[in-house]
Amino acid sequence: MGVERLFKDEATEEKGERARMASFIGAIAIADLVKTTLGPKGMDKILQSTGRGRSVTVTNDGATILKSLHIDNPAAKVLVDISKVQDDEVGDGTTSVVVLAGELLREAEKLVATKIHPMTIIAGTVCKGCEVLSGSNGITIVSESRIPWMSVEGYRMAAECARNALLQRVMDNKEDAEIQGRLNEDCNDYFEFQDTLPGQGTFCQIGRRCCYEAKGQHKLGVHSDYQEAWRIFEGLFLDEGFILDKKIGIGQPKRIENAKILVANTAMDTDKVKIYGARVRADSMSRVAEIETAEKEKMREKVQKIIAHGINCFVNRQLIYNFPEELFADAGILAIEHADFDGIERLALVTGGEIASTFDNPESVKLGHCKLIEEIMIGEDKLIHFSGVAMGQACTIVLRGASNHVLDEAERSLHDALCVLSQTVNDSRVLLGGGWPEMVMAQAVDELARKTPGKKSLAIEAFSRALIAIPTIIADNAGLDSADLVAQLRAEHHKETSNAGIDVISGSVGDMAELGISEAFKVKQAVLLSATEAAEMILRVDEIITCAPRRREGM
Amino acid sequence: MALAFDEFGRPFIIIKEQEQKTRLRGLDAQKANISAGKAVARILRTSLGPKGMDKMLQSPDGDVTITNDGATILEQMDVDNQIAKLMVELSRSQDYEIGDGTTGVVVMAGALLEHAERLLERGIHPIRVAEGYEMASRIAVEHLERIAHKFEFSLTNVESLVQTCMTTLSSKIVNRCKRSLAEIAVNAVMAVADLERKDVNLDLIKVEGKVGGKLEDTELIYGILVDKEMSHPQMPKQIEDAKIAILTCPFEPPKPKTKHKVDIDTVEKFQNLRQQEQKYFDDMVQQCKDVGATLVICQWGFDDEANHLLLHRNLPAVRWVGGVELELIAIATGGMIVPRFQELTPEKLGKAGLVREKSFGTTKDRMIYIEHCANSRAVTIFIRGGNKMMIEETKRSIHDALCVARNLIRNNSIVYGGGAAEISFSLAVEAGADRYPGVEQYAIRAFADALDAIPMALAENSGLQPIETLFAVKSQQTKEDNPCCGIDCNDVGTNDMHEQNVFETLIGKQQQILLATQVVKMILKIDDVISPSDY
């Protein structure tokens, strides 16, 4: 009598060592994939979509790379997920979190491997690979299942310790004057990291100035040579006002000073009767014509009501048909139709108006104000520019670049930078960059390992090795001698309160405080915690059960 | 396969499509069933206890679940074998009834089956084995009641409840902050418990999760959390002393149930209809305003016009709130759900001290908190965590902890965990066996042996030498007559579970024994398996 079949036909089951192997390999493969993009000299990846058009994305952003991969390995999916969460939560560090989790697993794999090899004691049927350690009360036999546990505990202690180390050394810059400077450095550092895009200085200034609210809007002009692209990047500008990608209706003023704006979300095509079941039934053509006139009259009334607000600019989320548009033009009012929902919300915020849908009480509707509305040209496109807005809380960044891909990447980078900035505004603690936090944490963790008795210390040591792997990778990616640099860095960090980190530009160990390279504390903390959490999760697995894939129709 | 033959050895055709069925009977059938049951138990065995491992499950659609919860593993396993499905059912019924101990019950059933197999080989009739098991389970349950302790707790002193919840949580991935999670679970249960009737309605506890942040940020909200935002971006984000109108009618002109058509054939009718329509909107908002509502929560959507009117009249609103959430809000705020605008009265409004909208992370996710409610009988546990799988697993763990706390409120007896209870009643069953004459004695002894499987698995998963550890503890229990000795899974240095504060609920343990015995009896009684052969 053989073992009964338990699962459905195509379901597979992997147990014990094999399951662990499968998840380690999957996770490490993913980490290796994004590893080369880490650091200021990290490389980019080209992603080609499988959809129609085979569109291509060139990127350096971990979350973007991982999101576009189709993965089958369940452990790898865990890593993709943490990277996505990191993106949603703090917006930056998406590569680091995956690399750190991968390194933790790599070290764990080594631990598991070494403990099983040396002695294979067959004790009954239960302990396959055992490790014999002489303890105080005779001999303790540790079965293999124990090792991941030790690592989990060790990792956990180490993570806690690392976090405390960070907390101790963190710089809190509550003073406003300093914050600006810090933010600047932060951002600067960020762009060094992200890309070797030119015009870094401009980028970071822009980022700093619009750290509260901003909209990345890009327009592209296609230029073939890169010299040109350089120039255009340098020419990238931040606009104090707000730019809406819309055209002004025909025959309406192209420029309005001291505009009073009514932002609306209302039907300006045909105003349907909303009572259920209403329909027009007429017995003669003349009746139809009468009703049509009544409809027109209704629209005219509506337009009159809108005009009665005393406005000279009307922005609607929905379509404006020709007839009301004409009426607006007659009244000398600038009407903008079909502004998307986001645009409307932001415009309402910027100009201080409210989004209106009924127009019966003109005195109580708040209107938006701005100093100047005009149509401007960027490249070949016409845009509407609102400047001198009431709230001053919004601004637009216009990105220009040589190709779609450059622009997309620039937009992603800018998004990350803005995220970092907004996080730093909320939590003003920052750390130095360039591998400095990793070294500080590694040092603290090492210290802990020395103090901890028992096998946990091995796992704690492994944690510190995984931390050091990050500066190593940064150096490797920059084509530097990582072994030498990291050793130097280590020596530096043995002195009290060192600020040493890797200076990738000059290829040596430098003072990060002097170079002004810093990172947000919140980002680093999130990286540390979610990487440990994910590694722990994967380590705990001893069995993988894959269900038969669902059959798709027509396949 | 054939059921009956004539005198020449030709089969009678009895079953439809007889040629295509396979049949197993007698001992073969029982053995096949037992081995299937054991295979399921073997999968779960490594998940038992605080050092148990997790399983990674990939669903047919490719979603990954990582869990330690027996019921969840079995449910998602996509089992095909009939007997294995029985085991899945077993774990599920433990989950529905008790909510915890879903892994233990399957491991126990597996061990019982394993020992039954040996008895069957000796030639003992399966029914006798089943009866023996039944008697043994009765002894065990009675013994459990004897060794159980009453736990005293009150609204202010919940330490003992927290300790028991911690035992449940310690086997999960969340054991990093089991203390705080156990406290959250206990406080949640205490907030909604009806101590007079000794009952807890777990529906009043809402568990929400959102990725991001860290596990330590998980919090208990005395109120309701709704994953929605204000219907208009410019409505106030915070309302104090809110009076809430809870509506299940849309802000739209009514739709009569009977089919009808309104014909427009003259200009006057057209204009009438228009005014009618405007009046509807105006009236609806006015009615809400008139009763003094400062927040409208609506199950349906509103028209753009209604939305603006609400903003205009300074009446913030939330739309598309689900039915279950609406009920919870009504309970928490002490309001009534109002199906028609005409029926709105000031008494029917719910009251909450603070309603606020909070945004998360870098994406535009917002949630609405309704706090300081008139009646804090509905609470929300809001879980944060590094990734999706983590949140899901935490939700399951919290569910287990909630169930444990509820069981303790229903019946405050506890037994000691860490295998202590199993060892203790294994000894009792062993001793009781001698009193029974007849073949059942063998089965009762086998039951006692089978109970050792749980402490054994615990020891094995914790990296201890299983046989040595088990018998050391056994002899200690007998010598000291102390039912608190268990397996020291966490290397604390003592195996007195009373000192380690490892407790389990009495009803949970009893249920485990009863359910496991029942299923095993059922499996043993099957002597013929007819199934369609593989095609």
Description of the structure:
The complex is a heterodimer of chains A (555) and B (535). With 555 residues, chain A is α+β, with helices and mostly antiparallel strands. Chain A has two domains: 273 residues, GROEL, domain 1 (Orthogonal Bundle), CATH 1.10.560; 154 residues, GroEL (3-Layer(bba) Sandwich). In chain A, 48% of the residues lie in helices and 19% in strands. In chain A, strands 9, 10, 12, 13, 14, 15 and 16 form a seven-stranded mixed beta sheet that branches. The relative contact order of chain A is 0.17. Chain B is globular and about 95 Å long. In chain B, strands 7, 8, 10, 11, 12, 13 and 14 form a seven-stranded mixed beta sheet that branches. In chain B, strand 2 and strand 3 form a beta hairpin. Chains A and B meet through helix 3, strand 5, helix 5, strand 11 and helix 9 of A and helix 1, strand 2, strand 9, helix 8 and helix 9 of B. Chain B: It is found in: Cytoplasm, Cytoskeleton, Microtubule organizing center, Centrosome. Chain B: It catalyses: ATP + H2O = ADP + phosphate + H(+). Chain B: Molecular chaperone; assists the folding of proteins upon ATP hydrolysis. Known to play a role, in vitro, in the folding of actin and tubulin.
